[in-house]
Amino acid sequence: MSDAVRSRPIVVTGCPRSGTTWVGSTVGASSEVLYLYEPFNDGAPHHLDVPERYLYVAPDSPAHAVPDMSALIGMGGLGGRARATARGIRLGRRFRSELPAHLALHEVVRSPASALTARRTLVKDPLAFFAAEWLEARFDALVVMMVRHPAGMISSYLKLGWPCEVDSLLRQDGLRERFTEPLAVEIERYHEEPDDRLGGLILQWKIFAHAAARLREEHPEWLYMSHENVCEEPVPQFRALFEYLGLRWTPALERKVVADSTASQVDPARHQQHALQRDSRTLAAAWRARLSEADADRIENEAGPLWEQLSALAWEPRQRLPQAG
């Protein structure tokens, strides 16, 4: 693989609650990358100034469409990190006022080795889903897109007490016009029945699923992974992912994947937002213990056929990898 591919930034994104943290943290354990955790997430301690969660950024938007993004991508190189770190030191106690400086100092403290050896940026963020095309077009990013069974996402939202986010998606004209036309009937019903929380979450999953299917057609060079496949065969999935990204796969990384995917799961009905150690083979279907039979049946009836189409597009270890560039 060429040095040009090995220096390209990486974006790990996907449908909400689809395993991006597990995949991103594993890739982020490589000393070859600078791991930026959810810069689009206003709930993160350091983040971009964006007007919406799951911000849609048109592919032809200029590089400055999201302020500070160019600087963050540039931190993948040693020179960019050195400049941002120096800037943070000069700012002193005010270093948190500038995102690149804040993140540079944070990474120096969190992972001194990677701060010296990284040669590319890794952006792990499900909220970058509708900005992934722009990140590829403007910054030559390699994109990894995660998908998950609708009941897995929905049961996770219910257990975490998270609200439906359909309104934020539909407020964005570009997103709505590009990705939601097949869902006009469901969207009308959503507006007519605002108290139907389960219906809203089903619609939310379907918006992401339709968008992922369309992006799969338009960007076959991206790597599409399903939460279920990663849970079932974590080592082959991660080994091939590292090959696609042009990163070294090491015995230490393999041990990490095994440790993270074989931990005992005490109670699948309990739920932690970012638990990194799990019994991965039982996790994929843990939603069956979280949902009532009626809710599970409704999700299957309303979203099951679309999931069958979407899951068929996800890469499996026995398939040939798409070209990285």
Automatic annotation (TrEMBL):
Gene Ontology annotations of biological process type: N-acetylglucosamine metabolic process; sulfur compound metabolic process
Highest taxon, organism lineage: Bacteria
InterPro entries: Gal/GlcNAc/GalNAc_ST (IPR051135), P-loop_NTPase (IPR027417)
One Pfam family, short name: Sulfotransfer_3
Protein's recorded name: Sulfotransferase family protein
Molecular function terms, GO-annotated: N-acetylglucosamine 6-O-sulfotransferase activity
SUPFAM superfamilies: P-loop containing nucleoside triphosphate hydrolases
